[in-house]
């Protein structure tokens, strides 16, 4: 009976999806340039505006997507266009139902944002899916130098669509050989069964890269892991190649290529599963030979809700390249919700009903990088607040980049867009920023973008700032996102007061230092706030925030614990699992760390992120239940819900420009992190064979120029 029920659910879901695709297709053909005033149902990323493709000769070398709003172009690094030595290149265009009327371009310096060239494309060949145009680099552009390249396209439906890329003129022909090498390297990881010269390209180091996780394989992995170890993976799609970085060194060009494709493999139960692969190879050409200077392969299982993955002890998420898969829990501990690879789910842990809330529908890895999802909250009835951010999947926001706040109603199995916030940051930039703060309390959204915390009232669509230009180390957010604390004046060393805000109720409290002391919030352990006290004279003498005491208080500001040692200063702390590790300083030098245990009782979590080891798939990530779910009840998987976006939901958000320094770390073809400290940024760039940009988009460090460091 359980098997027949599952088949019925699957068949019904397929029929519903097919009908939805047909309806959406009809609506999109009937719609003109004017907006739809009502709601629209959409839950899949589509090519909504014309799409450009960079080429080198006859070879496609990367997609360039169009945006109908502006992006933070100085740090946008999705694609680099390598222009042939004769200074020409061709772009292919899929008009996607539009008719292109004009194409303008501008070229800027990446060093100082200086305009180098601008003009208009005079001729476009073909139409529809087979349009193309040529671009010729101006004589003022120097070979081997990276520039920003932007196209602005006008169509019959859109006044301005922006396409962001970078461009570099090749000094000689090398791309064809490098691409052939990279693709052959990738293919050989499926073909080799014995030791070969492939292992000569590796820099195996188990202290840098563990050899138990097929979700992440790098140049530091073992040869066995490079060959997919015990997983009999088989390519099932063609390999798409995109050029991400190119450095023209005196000794030869070093180019980073991202190869995206899908594979399939059978698990221990002989069930075939599919995976998205994002494989990045940096190829260096020297004296007629090709060398690998960087390698990374990220694998994410295309996860499905089925009886094999949904158990009483845990939710098996399979092979994934995630450090942690976040989830949220209702206050009554009855519901959990999580997002994985763009899809959003929830489960009632009492009756074992499993809710499929939102399906991204983006198959390639590239599209999953452009649009992401995040679960924000789930209430005691199972209603879920979540966000879709980056390149919008909604027809109401065609070609726009922003954040959609969605509310899912469990009774109607429907998600409705509450607000849409247009932003200049792409999904990968937002992904880094939203990790700090993203919380919904009393129908108000709180998010941190750059160095400013904003609020958006989901009822009134009011937008505003909570606090702006926060320095690193001057604020903290509790693990559950409910409490925010920040220093007065938004600085670390000059504050005499801390503001604590309950984001669920909007209630605000203040904690003042006494006797002329300085005070600084250090973090949260559960819902307990930790702060430090320092004397101004000690700060000036030691040239850091030299704390003589550390205190732990609850939200009522009642002291729970304190720490101080005679003639010992506290430099900083680390907090993990209720253990506070204290960094200490005495007589002008660092001394051994000390520890303080915060044993404040916290409610037991419904589930935790973990993993187990499988004979075939090796490390599999799971959400493990603290208490086993009822075994007398079978899991019931409900069909995917309806999703409605709205024109009337848009918020005009005025975003502050970041005040302090910021450094963007890129590696393996994508943004890896955003750092406030230059040294930390360079350290992380070394580990990912990448580069560092400052806040203006200027390169300040690249691995290829420091390869021997």
Number of helices: 7
Instruction: List unreliable stretches of 5+ residues.
Output: 1-45
Q: Report on the biggest sheet.
A: 6 strands, mixed
Fraction of residues in helix? 10-25%
Number of strands: 49
Structural class: mainly beta
Radius of gyration: 27 Å
Widest β-sheet, arrangement of strands: 1-45-26-25-24-23
Distance between the termini: 63 Å
Q: Describe the oligomeric state of these chains in a short phrase.
A: single chain
Share in β-strands: 35-45%
Q: Tell me, briefly, the overall form.
A: globular
Mean pLDDT: 89
Question: How would you describe the overall organization of this protein?
Answer:
- By secondary structure, the protein is mainly β.
- Among the domains are: 2-30; 51-78 and 86-169, Immunoglobulin-like (Sandwich), CATH 2.60.40; 175-301; 663-706, no CATH class.
- The chain is 11% helix and 45% strand.
- The protein has seven helices and 49 strands.
- The protein has a six-stranded mixed beta sheet with strand order 1-45-26-25-24-23. Strands 4, 5, 7, 8, 10 and 11 form a six-stranded mixed beta sheet that branches. Strands 12, 13, 14, 15, 16 and 17 form a six-stranded antiparallel beta sheet that branches.
- A hairpin with a 5-residue loop joins strand 29 (452-457) and strand 30 (463-467).
- The longest helix is centred in the first third of the chain and has 29 residues, at 2-30.
- It is globular.
- The chain starts with a helix and ends in a 7-residue tail after the last strand.
